[in-house]
């Protein structure tokens, strides 16, 4: 996991990480190159348009450029070849409550977001998220070669260890684990992920909603040391979060293929970017030959710039928060 001091440059240089072509595509306004005068050709806009055009089909219906089509067609049968992940991350801190980890060898990714409301009452809101990801990362690293990590079980054990350590507060979380061509997942609340195939979203996790007021009595906080703070939330319900009931996490499985792109993030990402904008970023990044790190930086950069705009829940922008983005390419395994 990256340390805060290691990614400060990301925060300082975030504007420079978004190419002009993506700025034009996303309508972000600012661009490095001069804006053309009225009547002049806008080469940047033309380039952006060219990146978003589907490749022309050949006479037999196949793409003229196989690289532009991606390694698999939407209606093609999934390959049985074993897969692995090539992944990278970008973390743009504001409160420093997010945490994440990844293990390419084991095919496991995780993201957590500490519930910021605890910070108002003197609790380190990032302690539980950091504990979760540290525990999960250590357990995955200790797996025997070829062993599969079950996300739900991993989340439970990471919770048990973090709670036993005395860490206070609570956290959202999502853990993904690739086994063959199956992507297993478990998440709670609004840390989320999407799977894109040929730059189109084919799977999108659904955030869990807030607890109703009638369930307040059932809510348990993440450790006994923090339970006394329950009365501090008498005027509003805290977000449904990872507490004593890890069984409340949603879990499932999705079949992936070589060439798929998985984007994982905290609500700082998904509250500031639309699904179609993720598709545009992945499409343009794929055509430009971006690595997972390039793509994670660009997606985080777009979310960061949108977080500074006028707030709009409908347009998903203007929510200042920590932003964590993990991008994983599903690639064929060498094994």
TrEMBL record:
Keyword Hydrolase on entry: yes
PPM-type phosphatase domain ranges (all copies): 78-330
SUPFAM superfamilies given in the database record: PP2C-like
Cofactor: Mn(2+); Mg(2+)
GO molecular function terms noted in the UniProt entry: metal ion binding; protein serine/threonine phosphatase activity
Region (Disordered): 32-81
Catalytically driven reaction(s): O-phospho-L-seryl-[protein] + H2O = L-seryl-[protein] + phosphate; O-phospho-L-threonyl-[protein] + H2O = L-threonyl-[protein] + phosphate
Protein keywords: Hydrolase, Magnesium, Manganese, Metal-binding, Protein phosphatase
Top-tier EC class: hydrolase
EC number, UniProt record: 3.1.3.16
Keyword Metal-binding: yes
Similarity annotation: Belongs to the PP2C family.
Protein name: Protein phosphatase
Organism: Miscanthus lutarioriparius
UniProt lineage: Eukaryota, Viridiplantae, Streptophyta, Embryophyta, Tracheophyta
């Amino acid at each position: 996991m990256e340390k805060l001091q290691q990614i400060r440059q990301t925060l300082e240089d975030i504007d420079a990480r978004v190419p002009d072509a993506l700025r034009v595509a996303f309508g972000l306004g600012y661009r490095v190159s001069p804006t053309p005068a009225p009547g002049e050709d806008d080469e940047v806009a033309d380039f952006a348009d060219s990146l978003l055009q589907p490749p022309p089909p050949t006479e037999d219906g196949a793409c003229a450029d196989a690289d532009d089509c991606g390694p698999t067609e939407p209606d093609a049968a999934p390959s049985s070849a074993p897969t692995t992940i090539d992944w990278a991350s970008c973390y743009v801190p504001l409160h420093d409550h997010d945490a994440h980890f990844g293990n390419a060898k084991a095919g496991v990714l995780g993201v957590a977001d500490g519930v910021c409301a605890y910070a108002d009452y003197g609790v380190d809101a990032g302690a539980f998220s950091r504990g979760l990801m540290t525990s999960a990362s250590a357990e995955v690293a200790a797996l025997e070669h070829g062993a599969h990590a079950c996300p739900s079980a991993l989340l439970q054990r990471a919770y048990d260890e973090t709670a036993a350590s005395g860490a206070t507060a609570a956290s959202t979380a999502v853990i993904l684990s690739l086994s063959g061509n199956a992507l297993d997942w478990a998440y709670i609340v609004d840390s989320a992920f999407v799977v894109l195939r040929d730059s189109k979203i084919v799977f999108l996790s659904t955030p869990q909603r807030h607890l109703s007021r009638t369930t307040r009595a059932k809510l348990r906080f993440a450790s006994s040391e923090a339970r006394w703070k329950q009365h501090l939330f008498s005027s509003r319900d805290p977000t449904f979060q990872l507490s004593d009931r890890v069984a409340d996490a949603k879990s499932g499985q999705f079949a992936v293929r070589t060439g798929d792109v998985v984007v994982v993030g905290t609500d700082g990402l998904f509250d500031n970017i639309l699904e179609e904008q993720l598709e545009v970023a992945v499409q343009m990044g794929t055509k430009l030959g971006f690595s997972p790190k390039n793509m994670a930086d660009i997606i985080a950069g777009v979310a960061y710039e949108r977080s500074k705009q006028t707030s709009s829940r409908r347009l998903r922008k203007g929510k200042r928060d920590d932003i964590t983005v993990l991008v994983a390419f599903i690639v064929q395994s060498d094994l």
